[in-house]
Amino acid sequence: MKLPLWGSALSATLLVQVVSSFAGAAIPLLGPLLTLRWGLAPESIGYVSSVVSVGICWFLACGNPMLDHHGPVRALQIGLAFIAAGLLLLSLPFAAIGLAGALLVGLGLAPNTPAGSQILMRTAPAGHRTLVFSIKQAGVPLGGAIAGFAIAPMVSGFGFVGALWAVVATVLVSGLAVQPFRRSLDAEKGTQNRAWARMFLSPSSLARSARVLSSHASLPMLTALGVSFSITQASITAFTATYMITQHGKTLAQAGHLVATLLVASTLARIFFGWLADRMGSGLHLLCLLALAAGSAIALLVGMGGTNPWVTYSCMALVGATSMGWNGVHMAELARVSPPALIGDVASGASLFGFVGSICGPLIFAVTANRTGSFDWPYLLVAGQLAVSGAFALWSLRRHTQA
């Protein structure tokens, strides 16, 4: 039975999202082994995560001409090739080369946001658009959850390098698997732009990404909330495995299961919150409430996360659902308020600022952990900034409504 166009679109974007997220999540899960191999302190994995975010920001700032030239599905395939190349460099025992690999991984992860938004906004049924976006975005934690369960057994069976090569093989196979979708989903790609490679290196593209965010009154607030959530999500993703191993004495496999719990909860939450936002008619209020709930959940994890296994798993589920369940609602809300011709540009611009937060969050987290000798204070710091951001946005919305 032939899938409807929106079903093909969701299948292709979800597959790439799951596989690329699986590959990206392997890096922090392998953090203790990776930093040991490089002769660095465990918290140095935060610098690797920040370099990945630099690569993402680079593409989001300058990659839209490439997206217009090649079409969204081809852009996703190019991204998967970048991820595979980056992981191969990370498998080498040299920190400098590994950081170059992390940059390539970031460049490969980034096309998922603008390409996916462009494909789904064009094909998704209007009455279920947020749900469709959220199902696609659920691929982010789903891929991470698969990594949480799979990476430790892969390391045991194949060794560190063999595990990374197995991930590379998975990435390359998925790039081939979406090739049949190109004819239907790349049919409406933008005008051929043969200068896309030069523009990919142009600082002027960054200014354009910022300008498009003034095209609707809600976009600055949505972008600011996205930055705050991104700071939190990047920090949680980068440090949770290392936190559980170094501060709570968990094994790599136990830490992987805890991270998987975090991400499974996020996967289910993204789908539920997408359905809820469609029923509410707007996702902005929901995002504000999620920010407040996430700040409380992270504080609970710090205060009670090491008491007993059931409490730890429960706290992980709460943190995953609240601090990482926001992205599909956010992407759909950005697409909803954007001018139709600027959907890809707005998604890239807002995500660019979000990933600036993803760079700064792990860096500040790593520095704070190093200065305090504990992971507790940086966790509380990221929780506090998210709760304050949500409270301010909610206050601004109510003030605007009353006016």
Notable characteristics:
403 residues; Growth Hormone, Chain: A; 19 helices
How would you characterize this protein structure?
The chain is mainly alpha-helical. It has a single domain, classed as Growth Hormone, Chain: A (Up-down Bundle), CATH 1.20.1250. Helices cover 82% and strands 0% of the residues.
- How far the N terminus sits from the C terminus, by CA atoms, comes to 53 Å
Largest sheet: number of strands, sense, barrel closure: none
Please tally the β strands and state the result: 0
Element-level helix/strand string: HHHHHHHHHHHHHHHHHHH
Shape: globular
Query: What is the CATH topology?
Result: Growth Hormone, Chain: A
Would you tell me the overall average pLDDT?
81
Which percent range fits the helix content?
A: over 70%
Count of helical regions:
19
Q: Which stretches of 5+ consecutive residues score pLDDT under 50?
A: none
Portion in beta strands = under 5%
What name goes with the CATH superfamily?
MFS general substrate transporter like domains
